[in-house]
Amino acid sequence: MCLTQKEGLTAMITRNLFLFLSQNKYVKGKARKWGPKLGAHSLIAGETIQEAMDTVRELNAKGLSATVDHLGEFVYTREEAEESANYCMRTLDAIAESGVDCNLSLKLTSLGLDVDRNLCRDNMMAILETAEKHGGIFVRIDMEDYSHLDATLELLHELRQTYTNVGTAVQGYLFRAEKDVDRLKGTNIRLIKGAYKESPEVVYQKQEDVDANYVKIIKRHMLNGSYAAVATHDHNVIAEIKQFAEDNGIPREQFEFQMLYGFRTDMQEEIVKEGYKMRIYVPFGEDWYGYYMRRMAERPQNIVFGVRGLLSK
């Protein structure tokens, strides 16, 4: 086995380990005291709405837009779902009161999708009503694992019969991604590669295949005349999309780039200086553990970053 194969195997094993840990309740219970040592503070904008708004103001001052996401995992009761929905509405109130350039991102499971579909719909409608009251703040439904995909798209379709300030995400590692993009023509889509561990029956397994399909669906959505939120830290993809937009006469107002808070900050600011819109995904909240572990799993350099933080304390 050559060195690159060994590195690939190590990365796969390490990724699977961090994905397992992201769902481990015992480790999660110990995580809060480890957070600062793991470097979580550099990827999470605090635990409160006020801390999130402070972070967004700092980003806005650099010409960066934002979307905030109150982190939460494993909602099993109506009470938890309603509490999460109320928190989203309080966050929208804070965005409006602060006057910041910011959207809201959320997950349907946090609003009760696994508890009762109608409960989740009602919670989403209340959130979108609040967003409209504040001038139509855009609300992004984040895509979750494959088992929730159809339910998410079905609910989005229902919501868009009434509301225009709502969109979702499409994951490029899925075989069906191109069909979903076509189905969502005219919708503001966040285009991502995908972060969940899924069956080989539904996702590409080779990174080069994921990358190729990802770029393909971005271009297809843009050519459809739809708004594209290109969420990637890959400078090669960013350069290709810039050139594609120029070659095809696609105005910069029809797309934006997105990155995660705490990653590639120099590139974020450089893209803004070039005249493109850059939006930063800003997670916050006490339940940061699952999000942080998935970020560690995605890229080997993220893991190194976290371990260095742990050993430096």
UniProtKB/TrEMBL annotation:
<feature type="binding site">
    <location>
        <begin position="232"/>
        <end position="233"/>
    </location>
    <ligand>
        <name>FAD</name>
    </ligand>
</feature>
<comment type="pathway">
    <text>Amino-acid degradation; L-proline degradation into L-glutamate; L-glutamate from L-proline: step 1/2.</text>
</comment>
<dbReference type="Pfam" id="PF01619">
    <property type="entry name" value="Pro_dh"/>
</dbReference>
<keyword id="KW-0285">Flavoprotein</keyword>
<feature type="binding site">
    <location>
        <position position="143"/>
    </location>
    <ligand>
        <name>FAD</name>
    </ligand>
</feature>
<protein>
    <recommendedName>
        <fullName>proline dehydrogenase</fullName>
        <ecNumber>1.5.5.2</ecNumber>
    </recommendedName>
</protein>
<dbReference type="GO" id="GO:0004657">
    <property type="term" value="F:proline dehydrogenase activity"/>
</dbReference>
<keyword id="KW-0642">Proline metabolism</keyword>
<dbReference type="InterPro" id="IPR008219">
    <property type="entry name" value="PRODH_bac_arc"/>
</dbReference>
<feature type="binding site">
    <location>
        <position position="107"/>
    </location>
    <ligand>
        <name>substrate</name>
    </ligand>
</feature>
<keyword id="KW-0560">Oxidoreductase</keyword>
<dbReference type="InterPro" id="IPR002872">
    <property type="entry name" value="Proline_DH_dom"/>
</dbReference>
<keyword id="KW-0274">FAD</keyword>
<feature type="binding site">
    <location>
        <begin position="193"/>
        <end position="195"/>
    </location>
    <ligand>
        <name>FAD</name>
    </ligand>
</feature>
<feature type="binding site">
    <location>
        <position position="294"/>
    </location>
    <ligand>
        <name>substrate</name>
    </ligand>
</feature>
<keyword id="KW-0547">Nucleotide-binding</keyword>
<dbReference type="GO" id="GO:0000166">
    <property type="term" value="F:nucleotide binding"/>
</dbReference>
<dbReference type="GO" id="GO:0010133">
    <property type="term" value="P:L-proline catabolic process to L-glutamate"/>
</dbReference>
<feature type="binding site">
    <location>
        <position position="171"/>
    </location>
    <ligand>
        <name>FAD</name>
    </ligand>
</feature>
<feature type="binding site">
    <location>
        <position position="295"/>
    </location>
    <ligand>
        <name>substrate</name>
    </ligand>
</feature>
<feature type="domain" description="Proline dehydrogenase">
    <location>
        <begin position="52"/>
        <end position="298"/>
    </location>
</feature>
<dbReference type="InterPro" id="IPR029041">
    <property type="entry name" value="FAD-linked_oxidoreductase-like"/>
</dbReference>
<dbReference type="InterPro" id="IPR015659">
    <property type="entry name" value="Proline_oxidase"/>
</dbReference>
